């Protein structure tokens, strides 16, 4: 089948889910005409609000995403969701998105949901996800929601991609929050305490407040106050407040020059990740024999791995 | 303080824990004289059996590591442990190693334990861990045990580093094992079912046996049969059998040419990771201004990120 990139982009912008899905697949699979795709998308990017949603397992991320979709749709906003699965052989894979896909939103043309497994990707989220975000941005979604489970490196990567990062917590994680400390504070633009009807919700909110008031003096300026919003996502309670807070944060970002700064940082790491991918392909594909030869010398202990890497890089520079 | 690399390596080989710790720190921090360190270590490497230990949270990895240490020490083997923590803002950090360090092994000169947090490292385990393994190998440990919690990418990376990979499971993870499927089978050289005195242990072992017998026909040759070993690590039960299975697997690897093959693959990915690190430093440090300039063009939509990355790479080669 001939690939008509311009037509595909036009159809994606027309809201056709299949065209959007195809574009994301082209990006994920590093299609040979990826550069053409990237160039065709670019004029239409830069409009969406990009929201990251993360939190430890069990806080109700899928339910919260679904409730947030409902609330955003009520306002007429089109929403694209990327459910990032840092898939593990122990967890299976692509769990988050599949669960959501089953819900009421599956047939809503104003919603597009896609799961992406990071396993096997160089640098996990770093490379493919920003490109998928660009697809959804160019397709005209008002909000792009990147959902990931908070394990390992993925939630840190999500922060780098998002304009606004929502950290989801739940009662009964008392120790978890204590342990989390500064890490969570650094990444959260707003906190949502889900399952707020459960015992311990007040304590969780109280702990968070204390952590924030301590940290604000130390690591943050006074101008953005990280809100703490209680929700019961399964009943949609409190979710409108989250939507409101997202708007407020976006407005704050824009008026304080932070949006431009975050987007510049994002573009920087995006370009860097692609450049590294190109260089890696050169090392492995083009210089594969040389790499194997140098690796043999390392096994035989006639070269140490640094000396071997130096030679490989020198070869590359030519 | 002047750094005398040769003296440091000599003291590490003499079993001095402080020298070993210092060498690993030099490696982790990418000390300017890293190349000298790598070269000094190389003649003494290639002797240790490198064992990876992974499994989902809650299966008793720290207890199992501790029990394995006791069993290996009984045989007079010196053991170095790297406890890899794919630290998350939600889990704090460096939990595994700290817990072990508190135990009986802390004062045993035949044991060295170190935790490494992967957060913030480019490619997580890919770069710093192999270098730390080389330190322990060169220091003369008979076994280097790399322990990591099975979330995200880390357990896959561990497999790439280890001669032998042990996957730890526990009863009551029924669904987990079902979900895990081929992923776990691909990475495990041997299975340990810990907490084998608990209800459901027989079912877990049964499930594993079925998975293995199915997969052997499909994805494995007949020559290595992944053993399934029940343990109660908290009481040291079954752990000697694990040690025996580790020896058997090592012997099998050696006699089937697999050891050389795995070590060649490891050297290859090690050299590749270091080369990528060098190239990344060139992009970010040396060409940082150019990267910022190109990133601005991406934000302004005058360039797409691929075109920007192509220019950056061309500059680097140029």
Automatic annotation (TrEMBL), chains A, B:
Domain of life (superkingdom): Bacteria
GO MF terms, alphabetically ordered: GTP binding; GTPase activity; kinase activity
Signal sequence, renumbered to the chain: none
AAA+ ATPase domain segment(s): 47-191
Family: Belongs to the SIMIBI class G3E GTPase family. ArgK/MeaB subfamily.
NCBIfam families in UniProt: lao (TIGR00750)
Protein name: LAO/AO transport system kinase
